[in-house]
Each structure stands twice: as C-alpha cells, then as structure tokens.
C-alpha cells in the first residue's frame, strides 16, 4: 500500500486518467473499474489523496457514477464518492453544486440493493453542511415515492421465507434508507406527510424482521424505530397498520420488548443516543392507541403491585428501570422523555401521576413543567381496573403495611433541643457568610411560639 509522496503521485495520476476517460473513453471497462477500485482504496484516508477531494475530483466521480452506462463502473464510482463526502464535508457542497439531483433520485428507483445503499448514503450525507433543496427532491424528483417503494420491497423481503440470511446487502441498504428518511423528516418537517405511507412497511419490518444484532437497537432495528419518531402516527389511514385488528398490541409489544432488552444492555452514557427515540415512539404509539392497547402498555410500564412491595424504583422490573432513569443525571434527554411518557401514561393528570409514581419521582417533573403539585393525592393505589383498598405511601409509592419501621428510639426532648440549637447556629453561620438569605427557621419557630426552651432543671418523665 502506497503512502506519502508515492500515494499522492498515484492518486494524481488516477484522477487525471479517469477524467480524460470521460471525454476520450480511452480505458477498457475492466481498466476503468480497476482504476476506480484503486482510487477507492487511496480515498479511504484523505492524507496524500488531495486530488480526489477537489472540485475536479468530485465532478469526475459524479459523472462516472451517474452518467456511465455500466452499472459496475457506476457503483465503483459511487463508493469512491461516498467515501469522499463522508471524509470531507466541503465535498458535499461541491457535489450539490453539480446539479445532479434528477439523476440521483432517478437512480434510487433501481430495484437493486447496492444502488439503494450507495445512493441513499450520498443523499443522506448531503443533508449535512449543504444548501441542498430537500423540498425540491420530494416535490420535483419524487424522492419520497422512491423511499416508500424501497421500504415496501424490504417489507416483502422480510416476509419471504426463502430470503438469504447470509447476504448482508438487504439489511445494509435498509439501514441507509431509514437513516435518509429520518434526516429528511427531521430537516424538512413541512414534507413529513409525504412519507406517511412508509409507516405500514416500517411496522411490518419491525414486527416481522429477524436481524442478527449484538445489541437490541443496533442497525437496522434502531433505525427502524428512529424512522417512526418524526412521522405522524395519528393519520387515520395507517391506524390499522399500527394496531392490526388480529393483534392490536403487536407493535407496542415489540417496542416494549426492545425496551426491556435495552435496559439490560446499554450503559448510562449510551442511553441518550440509543434509547431516547424508542421511548418517544412508545409514547406516540400509546397516545394514539385504542383503549385496550393503552391498558396493555400501562400494565407493562407503570409500577405493579409487585413493585410496591418496596420503595418504587428499587426492584429489577422494567417500570423500576424507567423510574430510576426519570432522574438519571447522566442521560438528560432520556430522563426528560421517560418523565413525559410516564405523565402520558397517567392521562396527563397530576394526581394520577403522583399515585402512579409517588411524590418523589413526580415532584421534579411537575415543578419543571410549572404544574401545581396535588395536595390531596390519594394514599390508595389507582389502576385501570379500579381503586385498591390497600394504602400506599404517597411519597415512596410503597405499600404502607410493608414499610420497614426504624429500630432507632425516638429522640428525647433534650436531644431535640440540642439538635435545634445546632440548626440555629448553622443557619446563623450561613447567613453571616452570605451563602443564604432566608430567615432562620429556628428563630421563626421561637417567635411564633412553636419552640419551647427547656429550663435547666427540666427532667423528662420516664415510665
């Protein structure tokens, strides 16, 4: 493998030869493809490969990719182009300026996984750091139609028992299409409705697909979930896909299964980037679901009677994992999304929210949302089937009859007085140092007659 000046010389020669070939066609097909293959290898590292990343180099690759009658030459050039757009962001605008939108979108219509993979990646990369007009790609060049058609093909492939499990290209192409769909619906929200008909295909793949992944949300599973995040799941036409009459909970069960597996596989620092979208999709599926599906989701995600045998959030269940992550200081995005989900599962009712998760977990969320804390939340467990007569601690959510009682004896009056004196001195010092500016609570208690100083000869009654 060449490096340094030798690599630069070889790259310069290849770019020059392939550029001349565009006008004179002086290379045989196998020579052209061999040159592009060699250039691809050099282009994996931009050091000493400068000619590839110039305007001339990008134009040469683009013309071979989209003007060549040979599918092999086209794909070889596309691989080089993908590497260039990935490694050097300035090359993306160079590509957009060439005006190949029509040919790019037209090539995405090919019924070929290699073309789908490569062209989807090219468009995906141009959604960053360019002035590409996504609305025009959708309205004029029918990009949404091509994406939907490709997802339909993947849905049929997923349901085909004869499909090959050794060929990686279908799953790779699917992942690139889903990433492209997510980015377009994120950056071009005004055209999100153009992709509504992709929802049934995504759901089919998500529920029926069997993918060899190391972690639950590895591609293509994670991108399948992410693709649903920006789409409108309230559209009437797609309700039967989200909640099929034969098994209305098929999608919600699949999503919750992924969440349960994810809770055991991802570390705190991974949660924001991997699991947050899954929580958001579960929230959307619940929000638009029929009542029986909502009851099913709540039964799996809200604390159960088994969880209330101890303080909420301390068991090993999925509801406890959600509660613990609603206060996770490391995963701020997930923390917020989990609280939103639990509030939705409580019908956005503050009292029911407190009853479901306890004051401890509810208070911070309600405060941040400027929602008044309910003062008279019931101390009995509420669920979808009615009210239980078994009382719970409204702060911890634990059944009162299972709370552990303290073995520490109650303080004597003299001990209480000493602790009050310590508190008084502490507040005096904090005020003197300017750390706080509130009234000393012990002084206030004395002035209001709620604090009685014991005489020196006081003796506590002892039974």
Automatic annotation (TrEMBL):
Signal peptide residues on this chain, from the entry's feature table: none
GO biological process, one term: G protein-coupled receptor signaling pathway
Key words of the record: Chaperone, Guanine-nucleotide releasing factor
Gene Ontology molecular function: any one: guanyl-nucleotide exchange factor activity
Coiled coil, from the record: none
Listed Pfam families: Ric8
The keyword Calcium appears for this protein: no
Record bears the keyword Cell membrane: no
A single cellular component GO annotation: cytoplasm
PANTHER family assigned: SYNEMBRYN
Similarity-based family: Belongs to the synembryn family.
Record's protein name: Guanine nucleotide exchange factor synembryn
Protein species of origin: Xylaria multiplex
């Amino acid at each position: 493998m060449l490096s340094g000046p030798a690599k630069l010389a070889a790259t310069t020669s290849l770019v020059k030869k392939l550029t001349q070939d565009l006008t004179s066609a002086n290379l045989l097909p196998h020579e052209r493809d061999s040159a592009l293959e060699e250039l691809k290898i050099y282009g994996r590292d931009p050091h000493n490969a400068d000619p590839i990343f110039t305007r001339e180099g990008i134009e040469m690759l683009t013309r071979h990719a989209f003007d060549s009658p040979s599918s092999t030459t086209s794909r070889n050039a596309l691989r080089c182009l993908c590497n260039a757009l990935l490694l050097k962001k300035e090359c993306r605008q160079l590509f957009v300026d060439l005006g190949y939108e029509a040919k790019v979108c037209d090539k995405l219509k090919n019924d070929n996984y290699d073309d789908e993979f490569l062209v989807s990646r090219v468009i995906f990369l141009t959604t960053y750091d360019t002035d590409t007009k996504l609305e025009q790609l959708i309205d004029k060049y029918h990009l949404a139609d091509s994406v939907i058609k490709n997802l339909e093909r993947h849905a049929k492939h997923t349901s085909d028992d004869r499909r090959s499990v050794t060929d990686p290209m279908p799953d790779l192409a699917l992942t690139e299409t889903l990433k492209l769909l997510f980015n377009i619906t994120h950056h071009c929200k005004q055209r999100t409705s153009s992709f509504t008909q992709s929802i049934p295909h995504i759901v089919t793949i998500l529920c029926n697909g069997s993918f060899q992944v190391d972690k639950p949300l590895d591609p293509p599973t994670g991108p399948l979930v992410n693709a649903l995040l920006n789409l409108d799941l309230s559209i009437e036409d797609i309700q039967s896909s989200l909640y099929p009459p034969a098994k209305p909970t098929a999608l919600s069960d699949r999503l919750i299964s992924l969440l349960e597996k994810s809770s055991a596989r991802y570390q705190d620092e991974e949660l924001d980037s991997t699991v947050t979208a899954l929580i958001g999709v579960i929230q959307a599926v619940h929000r638009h679901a029929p009542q029986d599906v909502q009851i099913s989701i709540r039964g799996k995600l809200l604390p159960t009677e088994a969880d209330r045998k101890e303080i909420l959030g301390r068991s090993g269940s999925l509801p406890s994992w959600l509660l613990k992550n609603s206060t996770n200081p490391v995963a701020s995005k997930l923390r917020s999304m989990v609280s939103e989900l639990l509030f939705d599962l409580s019908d956005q009712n503050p009292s029911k929210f407190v009853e479901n998760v306890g004051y401890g977990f509810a208070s911070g969320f309600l405060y941040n949302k400027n929602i008044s804390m309910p003062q008279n939340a019931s101390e009995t467990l509420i669920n979808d089937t009615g009210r239980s007569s078994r009382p719970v601690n409204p702060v911890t959510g634990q059944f009162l009859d299972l709370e552990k009682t303290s073995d520490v004896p109650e303080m004597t009056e003299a001990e209480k007085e000493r602790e009050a004196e310590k508190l008084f001195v502490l507040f005096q010092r904090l005020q003197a140092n300017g750390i706080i500016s509130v009234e000393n609570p012990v002084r206030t208690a004395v002035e209001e007659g709620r604090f009685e100083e014991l005489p020196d000869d006081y003796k506590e009654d002892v039974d």
